[in-house]
Amino acid sequence: MLAPSVLPAAAFIDPQGRNRAAVEAIFQRVAAQVLDYLAAAGSQGPLPEVKDIHFQGIPEQPTAIAPLLESLGDLMAQSMNPAHPGYMGHMDPLPATASIVGDWVAAALNNNMLSVEMSPALSRLEPLLLADLAQLFGLGEKSGGLLTSGGSLANLQALTVARNVKLDCLQKGLAGGPPPVIFASELAHTSIQKAAMGLGLGLEGAVLVPTNANAQMDVAGLEEKILGAIAQGQKPFAVVATAGTTVTGNIDPLPEIARIARRYDLWFHVDAAYGGAIALSPTHRHRLSGIEQADSVTFNPQKWLYVTKTCASVLFRDLGLLHSHFRVSAPYMNTETDWVNLGELSVQGTRHADVLKLWLTLQHLGKAGCAELIEASYALTDHFVAQVRQRPYLELASAPEMNLVCFRGCPPGRSPDQWNIWNADLQQHLLQQHQTFLSLPGFRGQRWLKAVLLNPFTTVAQVGELFLAIDQFAAGYRVDG
């Protein structure tokens, strides 16, 4: 007989099944709670106010599960609600059903993707799936990649390999020599600057290139920056193009940037964290023309492929370079003849089994389902953009190239220095009165409204109601503001 214990009877699932009924009751209740929440997401706010977080510290004694599930419900009700069709503010999708299932099963398995020994099936599945993804971008027969916990880690991983390859510093590091620099658009994700900092280059090691009127990297400006860096005694080694900028959703001119990268012997990395999903759309994949020339690509299925967070990837044209210019073997792990311990190739050691939810989602949706979702987003974007252009008091920040629209109000009779306040007030009005959340990013020194048309349950009629609300706000603001 087991000794008396303060542990709850369902603290763990007995591997002999002796407490199965108790655990099953908990699982059924949680599953119902989650389903009730998601199935009613449209009747809740897209961004609810946080009223109260009941935190009383870690208790001395165990707590019964029933009040914990009530507290869980309170936290859910106060959480960001991307499943709401009016949630348009950021690149956060409602989760695909298969990815929820995959995340749940991965948690139950609790395998460590550090090594084949600790995740024997999934460590085989990940490289197979990532090689398939690399083929979507046309990276060639030697390509492949890794899953990472977010696009920032993917960018860091890619640029670390780029530094080691181009500067031959795997063994001795950056000892002496001219200061290395990378180049990226001024609208590139901030993770590029963080990567430069983490690589020992400092923030100034990421040279930001100006953009054109359509928020794309200026190619002539890139070449000027490269020549300027060389003239100052610096050592360029990589250029980062963005396929889907965070604020405006634009795509840098990939073929032209690829040519410049080759001309100056630079590693060519494409941050397609968001826009990479376009590769699954036969109608729109031409927008990524040039990405097939990349040495590495960041792509986040957690965005436009609706996989639960986190699920990001870094892909390499020549996966062998990841092995030869990054891998550090773990002597405490067994090795397999045909399969590598993925933690030896990654910035991360312990790795979550993200491949399970990604594999399930792609299998469940198929290429045709992914393409349908992407093309529906584009169709809704076209309608949204048409609504903006029909209104003289609204303007676009750029010509959208994805399902992201950055725009603002320029109300007549008000000076430009008052526009920021007007747009901020509009954002709050739409959130509080119309259950629509648009974010308010900064762009070129001003505040703009951003809509990401990602939710497949957002309709043309809803967009029409949104612009009617904007019209009514504009009319009232001119009179009363």
Strand ordering within the main sheet: 1-7-6-5-4-2-3
Arithmetic mean of pLDDT: 95
- Determine the number of helices (DSSP H or I, runs of at least 4 residues): 12
End-to-end span in angstroms? 76 Å
Question: How would you characterize this protein structure?
Answer:
This protein folds into three domains: 20-81; 104-362, Aspartate Aminotransferase, domain 2, CATH 3.40.640; 372-480, Aspartate Aminotransferase, domain 1 (Alpha-Beta Complex). By secondary structure, it is α/β, with parallel strands linked by helices. The strands form three sheets. Strands 1-7-6-5-4-2-3 form a seven-stranded mixed sheet, with helices on both faces. α5 (151-167) packs across α6. The model has no long low-confidence stretch (mean pLDDT 95). A hairpin with a 2-residue loop joins β10 and β11. It is built from twelve helices and twelve strands. It has helices at residues 20-39, 65-77, 97-109, 122-136, 151-167, 191-198, 219-231, 254-263, 319-325, 354-389, 419-434, 460-480; strands at 144-148, 180-185, 206-209, 235-242, 267-271, 296-299, 312-316, 394-396, 404-409, 442-443, 446-447, 449-452.
